[in-house]
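Extended Data, record AraC family transcriptional regulator
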Amino acid sequence: MRNKKVQRLEDYTRLLTNDDIQAPLWIDFRDDPALSVYPVHRHAWGEFVYAFNGVMEVNINQVNYLTPPPYGLWLPPNLHHSGLNRTSVSHATLYIHASLCQQLPQQAGILLTSPLVSAILLHLKQHPIKNTTEHLRLLHVLLDQLQYAQYVPSYLPHTNHPNLKQILNYLYENPADQSALSELAQQINTTERTLARLAQKQLGMSLNEWRQRLKVMKAMSMLSEGKTVENIALDSGYANASAFIAMFKRWMEITPDQFRKSLNC
């Protein structure tokens, strides 16, 4: 069964890596099973990939990019990448001709989309008739919206700043750590305020948000390994499962158990 899944996605890759798409904007919708694999490939077109549910992992130069809603992944033209769906995933891919990519980021990254983008994608999925005036107009609205979307280099960004990198490495190895921001600042001999500003500047988010994203990422791996929610909560630094479940659902829009069940779809 696994080989059939992989072969199916390879056939899909060959179809959409060529230059046979006739329109400068083209959208495709797919429902793929858990543990489906996208082998290394590239497209002549830019791609915006958005998951309606589930989480896609795309690997570029040994860096993993995750796309939990409402984040979408932007891939410039001719970029080699591979992918893995740990869960079943329903997603849309907007293909953008290279001539229309000038106003979009020149490097891969995460785009924080507006509610309008989500609504248009859902509408197009529910009304799949292509090449109508309305359809093409909505694709151009999507392109306009993506040009103004907030760009995030990664769902879990990193930095080369020596002091902040030291803190991030520590938190990555100790996800259950509950140190206050002031205590973390003491580790690098700085103030809480300075560390907060440094994190915002280097990561594009607060250190607290980065820590929660880290917990979610690690939790997804532990859920796929079959660990109990109670044990994952403790490993993530929570005193009880309820607090952990609330945090996970806030970020993923599904509970840990729902995430685990989606692995077996």
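Summary. Residues 117 and 169 are 34 Å apart (CA to CA).
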